Amino acid sequence: MASVLASLFPKLGSLGTSDHASVVSINLFVALLCACIIIGHLLEENRWVNESITALIIGLCTGVVILLVSGGKNSHLLVFSEDLFFIYVLPPIIFNAGFQVKKKQFFVNFITIMMFGAIGTLVSCAIISLGAIQTFKKLDIEFLDIGDYLAIGAIFAATDSVCTLQVLHQDETPLLYSLVFGEGVVNDATSVVLFNAIQNFDLTSVNPSIALSFLGNFFYLFLASTLLGAGTGLLSAYIIKKLYFGRHSTDREVALMMLMAYLSYMLAELFYLSGILTVFFCGIVMSHYTWHNVTESSRVTTRHAFATLSFLAETFLFLYVGMDALDIEKWKFVGDRPGLSISVSSILMGLILLGRAAFVFPLSFFSNLMKKSSEQKITFRQQVIIWWAGLMRGAVSMALAYNKFTRGGHTQLQDNAIMITSTITIVLFSTMVFGLMTKPLISLLLPPQRQLSTVSSGANTPKSLTAPLLGSREDSEVDLNVPDLPHPPSLRMLLTAPSHKVHRYWRKFDDAFMRPMFGGRGFAPPAPGSPTEQGP
Description:
Blueprint: H1 2-13, H2 17-42, H3 51-69, H4 82-100, H5 103-108, H6 110-136, H7 146-157, H8 162-167, H9 174-200, H10 208-243, H11 250-270, H12 275-288, H13 296-324, H14 328-331, H15 338-370, H16 380-389, H17 395-405, H18 414-445, H19 448-453, H20 498-518
Helix pairs in contact: 2-3, 2-13, 3-13, 4-11, 4-12, 4-13, 6-7, 6-9, 6-15, 7-9, 7-17, 9-10, 9-12, 10-11, 10-12, 11-12, 11-13, 15-16, 15-18, 16-18, 17-18
């Protein structure tokens, strides 16, 4: 043992300066992640602070310390990279969102979610872009062209509803949670697809042909990405059902699920599609089919493994955003024009508020016209919460801004630095101010007695009727598998709703064709030692 340790010390001593600095940075960052988890746990019941804000504050404090220690030369441990964000950090977050979602609530409200997430994002992008064009010229900002303004619209149309979702509960407010959650995922995907489409087109001379081509490319990305995600999920379900790895090794089926999930995202990037949409729908399909084809122990493992990876990725993002906010490299370029950066941030924040209101309330009114049941209509208080949930900006906006206005995480131009610092300011302000007020606002608009009155049939079906191994946030499958349970009388009117009819026909098709081929609940592999399905 001593000889082994002795042989290691020379290697450690021979590490280059840059290698040693990387090791120190990684150690500190992991320690900070641990601190975020511990402090977040201690503040669990706090009325104002949640885990996201905790990580952001710790990141800010760490950035201040590093800035002082380095003599004002540096404020972060790692250089932000949009490639790191989109390829390694974002996939587990989005996949877990699809894997854990309550599918019944999501698809019952699918039309409304798509209206908010797709149409709403386009409306918000248009208002932010047009508002920026009109106001920035008055500030003598001449370095932006039409493509830049449209990119700014896409950047700041990307919402971050994590703070609101951490306060809402699926079982207490199923309608509101599904709308906020679903819109957040579709919004991110739409913003990224829109941003990439803007980057790929020459918009200096817009004509009807270019506009039609732009829209056609946009809808193609949406449809192709969704089909790719569903196809990859079905392929994983078919492979695991036919080969049934669990009879020999549960490790193999867990590893295959993880790799197939990540493969869906990378395939989308390979074919220039939307990885967010692809991995999200891959998660939905895997939870509906693949998850039921693995052993019982693998189900518990995958549920908690995906949730843990997503949690760590989210904490990592907020922690880094806090540290990067004080990056002296960007702020020194706007040191002689601080008023301009503040003006740009204020204008964009105002446009975000306006753009959000311009579609939430009108689309909610239109959605309510299509709903026959008052239980499924969006009340004004719920509309205010939906509007509020989309005011916060986060890592997606940061990544898109870095992609547009920096090269390798660095900028040497004052004009680009103004846009980066404005983005950082908006992310910090919206997350800290709006995030801190989220819990009190929801408590005011949805007091406990009101929350309980909005509980739908989803609250009667989940935890008490499923395996106790699944946590309160992990029960996404049971919503679709309780056809024999009596429904409350107040929900009988919903049977006439078109979305429920579509759901009923889908259930018949699913039971007759899809489940026998791809597996799923009630269609476990017949091989010896295969998992026994846990019925309600």
